[in-house]
Amino acid sequence: MFDILAIGGGTAGLVTAAGAAGLGARVALIEQDRMGGECLWNGCVPSKALIAAGKVAHNARNARKFGVELAPVQVHLDEALAHVRNVQARIAPHDSPERFRGLGVHVVQARARLVGAGEVEVNGTRLRARNIVVATGTRPAVPPIPGLVDVPFHTNETIFDIETLPTTLMVIGGGPIGTELAQTFARLGSKVHVIEALPTFFAREDAEIAARLQAQLEAEGLTFHLGAQAASVRREGSATVVTLKTADGSERELRGDALLVAVGRRANIDDLGLESLGVRTDRGGIITDGALRTNVSGVFAAGDVVSGGLKFTHVADHMARGVLRNALFPGSSRLDYSAVPWVTYTDPELARVGLTELEAREKFGSGVGVWRREIGAVDRVIADGGPSGLVKIVTDRKGRVVGGHILGPHAGDMIGELTIALKHKLTVGQLGAVIHPYPTTAEAIKQASEQRVKATFTGWKKDLVRRLVRRG
């Protein structure tokens, strides 16, 4: 009898297993494929490694502005992908069966199926556990576009094994995954078209920030087809032809030699035996309460497989820690998602936490404050020749941070400061009082925060201070 049994060796399952073992629990971990999950093999790790290769190529092409003369840049895709695999190989041991067995976890690499209350069948053997955590993640969703199944196309599960750099890459889906890879392949040398059904680029992000990122990507040569549906796909010789249909009913065609589909995710809930126990699911995955309990006693879910959950590795980690608390200790604790940051790893990076300006105005009305600082005007960014960008801090009427948005170099690292401010209800005045090292990009946060002090230093306050400093 195990105290906790996790199904799935991605982030949620790994954190659950390692954490439970560290607490002294009897733990089993079942993974039918490779340990490490989507993040290590098809997501975060390979994409960031390939993004790094694309950035090197881009910087090399633009080295002349620093007084550095380079020969014409040549991209060797096979070597760039070898870099990706080397990065994965260096990280993989941390997630390996051997490491987890060393932690005391009973690891089985096979398919698992729930067969009864507290029972999971693996390789014909039944394992029993007081608590079962389903952490099977997601896979790419493939839209029902006429003709798509009859043509070769890539998803994030295959794009990192591509053998030839596309001359023209068409990307269906203009979200973070599609856009990150679109920019990367453009920098590696492909002509790239991004097809997005929504009429607005990055509709979930702050509109001002998203518009600026779109303009910068277009300046690099990416072509966006917003408000356009992929109505059909067909093959003509060696070319793939995508027919686009816009809201007004007009149609046009795009041709390319490679197609990437990045339109969302589908939960891995098939053939797990959930229905035999009566575990409730919907199109988004497994339905849970705020403590990640399903409707069946002793069965939890964590990570991307949770319906409606934020599909981020760091959220999966957060969920797993919540499951440990709720499965192994008395009582129940709801998870807090009020201060979850996320990052799109384009160049410049786009990072966000909390409310957008529009969301804040809808919630708080006219008392909302918006404080900005152009990153391109910060001394460190000027010295580095970095891309322009913006720090944008949104506050309530008391000056407390309710949203933070950063477009610029190192935005993913900088957003942590605004996340702490939001989490602990700090004001921009408190942020502005923090000493930042000079010269750093993060000074933009301090400088944006100081805008509120300057904005409120008017009227009687300014008159009073003037009299105090001139009293001699």
- Distinct helical segment count: 15
The end-to-end span amounts to 82 Å
Report the CATH superfamily of the largest domain: FAD/NAD(P)-binding domain
Note the beta-strand portion: 15-25%
Global mean pLDDT: 95
Percent range of helical residues? 25-40%
Determine the structural class based on helices, strands and strand pairing: alpha/beta
Assigned CATH class of the largest domain:
Alpha Beta
Radius of gyration: 25 Å
CATH fold type of the largest domain: FAD/NAD(P)-binding domain
**Shape assignment:** globular
Strand tally is 24
* Domain module count: 3
Note poorly predicted spans: none
- Taking strands numbered 1, 2, ... along the chain, how are they ordered across the largest sheet? 3-2-1-7-19
How does the major sheet shape up? 5 strands, parallel
CATH architecture of the largest domain: 3-Layer(bba) Sandwich
How would you summarize this macromolecular structure in one to three sentences?
The chain has 472 residues and is an alpha/beta fold. The protein has helices at residues 11-22, 37-41, 44-61, 77-91, 97-102, 176-188, 207-219, 274-277, 313-328, 357-364, 379-384, 411-423, 428-432, 443-456, 459-469; strands at residues 4-7, 27-30, 106-108, 112-116, 119-122, 125-128, 132-134, 138-140, 168-172, 191-196, 223-226, 228-236, 239-246, 251-256, 258-261, 265-267, 281-282, 285-286, 299-301, 342-344, 349-354, 369-374, 390-395, 401-408. The chain has 3 domains: 4-35 and 96-139 and 266-328, FAD/NAD(P)-binding domain (3-Layer(bba) Sandwich), CATH 3.50.50.60; 148-263, FAD/NAD(P)-binding domain; 342-459, Enolase-like, domain 1.
